[in-house]
Every structure is written in structure tokens, then in C-alpha cells.
Amino acid sequence: MSQQIEQQAREWWLALEAGRDDVRLNEQFDAWLAMDDRHRLAWLEVLMADNAAAAQVDTPVEFDQPLPPIARSRRTAPVVQWIGGFSFISLIVLLALAAPHLPRQWQRLNADYQTAPGETRTFTLADGSTLVLGADSVVSVGFDDATRRIELVRGEAELSVGADPRPLALHHDGFAVRDIGTRFRVDESGDALRVSVSEGVVDSSRAGYPDTHRIEAGQRLQWGPSGVEPLSAATLKPEPGLLLLDQADAAQALAQFERMTGRRLKLDGTPSPNRVSAAFPIRDPAQQDAAFASLLKEFGLRVRFQAVGVTWIAAGT
Known about the structure:
Layout: H1 3-18, H2 23-35, H3 37-55, H4 72-76, H5 79-82, H6 88-98, H7 104-107, E1 113-114, E2 121-124, E3 130-133, E4 138-143, E5 148-160, E6 168-172, E7 175-189, E8 192-206, E9 213-216, E10 220-224, E11 227-231, E12 242-248, H8 250-261, E13 264-268, E14 276-281, H9 285-298, E15 301-307, E16 310-315
Helix pairs in contact: 1-3, 2-3, 3-6
């Protein structure tokens, strides 16, 4: 998303605050929203940042370019108190756009198993399988008389499959990993899904793609934006208080940083194609800040602005 579009969204935010009851202004705003999906995305981000600011008004909001003055009453009012000035079409557009971008906490409502940022937990499932969830991960489980289905909503899961005649499959966003008597790990980070097999064999497939890829013990495979690629064996072992990156691109590295620290990040633009294998200590805020600075430098990124609880990052120094 371009800086120009995001600046336009912030300017609309200011204009609508000053003229909420201006019918002509709202019609022009509707037209701007409908013009481009990127306009709606930029507007949603402004709403999310503002709603977060409303919850914690004492935390400053910093932008690359200063915004015009805004009355403090506008900072303190939740979105629901002023959105009534928008037209019906605007509300429908924003609600439809917000659906796939619901806060992470909402994903937990229907979860069977979950972990907090920085936390790893082990669970025993009803079929005797052992589920190890990585940091900030969410899983739903559905077993019936014929099948065993596990849904990785987000994060990382390692599964040691229990002896059971029913077939087992782990799903995530159109991907399916089908067990053939095994122990395997699935990691959903950034724009990629990684499957690593410790014991046995799995078949990995994706909706809309004709091929099924078989992965045997000691092998790893990654589904990413550029297709399917094999990965070399992992060389780093998880350790508490460490951010472990194994051939991670920028999106994966930032996603793992989020999961380990609980910090919210938003990446715009195309970062460096570098891949990083490293271990960063993140046991306290100072170490987390140092690790974050190293990631920005490694991938050629910069902080564009910070709103309450969210840091927007862009490519370029």
C-alpha cells in the first residue's frame, strides 16, 4: 500500500471529524472508498489505530509526517460514538472489510487449545495424540466416528499422532497435511506454511493445486508465494527466551517476533528477499528492542509510524 493512499486515509479521517454531518462530504468519501480496495484497507487501518488510541489516550501516536491538530475529545471517543455520521454504504463496506481482519483475540473464542505470546504448552488430545503449541497459537479440534480433523487457526503446532484407525488431517487456510503414522510440525508464519517431519510420512496439499507432496522423516517443505520448495534440515532447537529464525524471510521473521513478544506489527511494501538463520535473545524489553532493530536492518525496513499497540513498518530506509 502506498504512502500516498495512507496519507489520504488520514486526511479523510480529519475531514470527517470536522464535517460529520456534511452529506456531500460523506458522498465524496463513499466514492473514494469504492474506488480501490487499497483505499478501504488504508481506511480500516486508520480506524483500528484510532480505536486503539481511544482505549489508551495517554500513549502518544507518532507518524512520519505530523498530522494537523485534533481535539482531545476526538482522541478519547471510541469509534462507535462517532461512526454514526458515516453513510450506510460506508458502514457496510467497513464491516465487510473488517471481517477477515478481526482482532487476534476473536480467533480464540471458538478455540479448543491456545497459547499466549511467548508461551509453549503441551496438550493430550482425546485420541491419545500429543499436541505441542508454539507461542501465540490457536487450534480447533474436531473428531467424529470416521475422521480426526485439527485446524491450525494461527501459529505453530507439533503433533505426535496417537494410534487410532481414523485418518487424521491438519488444516490451515486451504492447506491439508495428512498423517501416515508420524510426528510432524506445521508453522504458519508470514505468507508461508512450513511442514517438518520428525517421524513417519505426511502428504501435504493445498486447495486449488493439483499436486500432493510427500514429506518423509528428516525432510521439510515450504508452501510460499513463489510455490513449493524443499528446505534443508533445521539446525536450531527451540529454547525459552530466544527468537529462532531458520531460513526466515521478512514476513516470517516479523510474524515469529510477534508471536514471541506479543507486539503487533504491520508490514507494507516489498522488503529485501534476504533469508535469515539466527537466534536473538528476547527475554526483556531491551533485548526485544535490540532484536527488532536487527530485523529492520537485515531486511531493509523502517518504522513508518506507531499507534497504540501497533507498529507500521515499510520497506526502505
